[in-house]
Amino acid sequence: MKQFGSVLDTHRAQVEDALRNALVEAGGLPLYGMLRYFMGYEDAALRPIQGVSGKRIRPTLLLYIADMFGGSPVALDLAISIELFHNFTLIHDDIEDHDELRRGRPTVWKLWGINHAINAGDVQSLLANRYLLRAAATDSIGGAKAARILNDRFMEVAEGQFFDFELATCGLADERVTVDTYLEMIRKKTSVLLGAAAAAGGVAAGCDEQVSATLFSYGESLGLAYQLADDTSSIWGAVAETGKEAFGDVVERKKTFPILHARDHGFSERLTELYASHQPLTTQEISEIVDILNNSGAQEATRTLGETYVQIAKERAQELPIAKEAIQTLVSLVDTFVQFGLPITPDGR
């Protein structure tokens, strides 16, 4: 993904400096070095490095929106909290998904073991809470309201992870595996943090409940659109562009929206059979599943639903009582962050 643009670069740099300082101040134990490693500030030997970090969209969005509404003395603490929390979930996700790499580097559990990774993630979640408490103590009105918003949404992320576990353990024919359940899972696991970032930024700066709700809807819709775009790129995206394994979600038998669409549109029996096996899918079976997806119109259906959320996000941005230039920045962010790719052939090209 391209950078948000020069108008947001300053906010992103501010976030990076604050995050680095927060994790340095956390302590000198190797435990905290693991967190600095994961966040991109140290190498595997726990030596300082530069330039291996995530996109920081959530804290950057929070800071930008707070500034749009006049600024807040606690916006940076809130931004640090949401990014620390988001990355805590990723440390645990890597364990749960058995992922050995993230951002091109070995994951925390791969380097230091599962026990250390669980503990490091737990500590990072507590650090996130520390910055929420700091924001609430500094500003007992806007800061406290924003902190409650974030804490409530942090709980929803855990609920989304619960739904993810449930979907992973159910067979494709299980009545609990529905499009509605899947959409609720990605809403909670992925989208609410973007909504919370937008809403908390506005609330910290003093906006009212109606504007806060509009901000949340903007971020939530942006997150849903992004995840649906990711559903398409994880199956049809070109490897050189995504950096992911060709047809990765098919290889892993993930029950994403395209798969559920195909199952619900005439291909239930064969998809259920292929997903029921515990053996790795063969190249021929992967190709067959991709053909099923293509014949069912799954990519087009996913894109259509994703673009519905794109439109909602843009409409919410245009409803905000802010300068036209700021509205355009938020609209442009949607187009930058959400990109639907073109189909590729079953050989991965």
State the name of the first-level CATH class of the largest domain: Mainly Alpha
The counted number of beta strands is 2
How many separate domains? Answer: 2
What's the story with the biggest beta sheet? 2 strands, antiparallel
How are the secondary structure elements laid out?
Blueprint (H helix, E strand, L loop, with lengths): L5 H21 L3 H9 L18 H12 L6 H22 L4 E2 L2 E2 L1 H5 L1 H25 L3 H28 L9 H26 L4 H28 L2 H4 L5 H4 L5 H20 L6 H14 L1 H22 L4 H14 L12
Antiparallel strand pairs: 1-2
Helix pairs in contact: 1-2, 1-3, 1-4, 2-6, 3-4, 3-8, 4-6, 4-7, 4-8, 6-7, 7-8, 8-9, 9-14, 12-13, 12-14, 14-15
Description:
By secondary structure, the chain is an all-alpha fold. The chain folds into 2 domains: 1-175, Farnesyl Diphosphate Synthase (Orthogonal Bundle), CATH 1.10.600; 208-349, Farnesyl Diphosphate Synthase, CATH 1.10.600. 73% of the residues lie in helices and 1% in strands. It contains 15 helices and 2 strands. It has a two-stranded antiparallel sheet with strand order 1-2. Strand 1 (101-102) and strand 2 (105-106) form a beta hairpin. Helix 6 (114-138) packs antiparallel against helix 7 (142-169), helix 9 (209-236) runs antiparallel to helix 14 and helix 14 packs antiparallel against helix 15 (324-337). The longest helix is centred in the middle third of the chain and has 28 residues, at 142-169. The model is unreliable at 342-349 (pLDDT under 50).
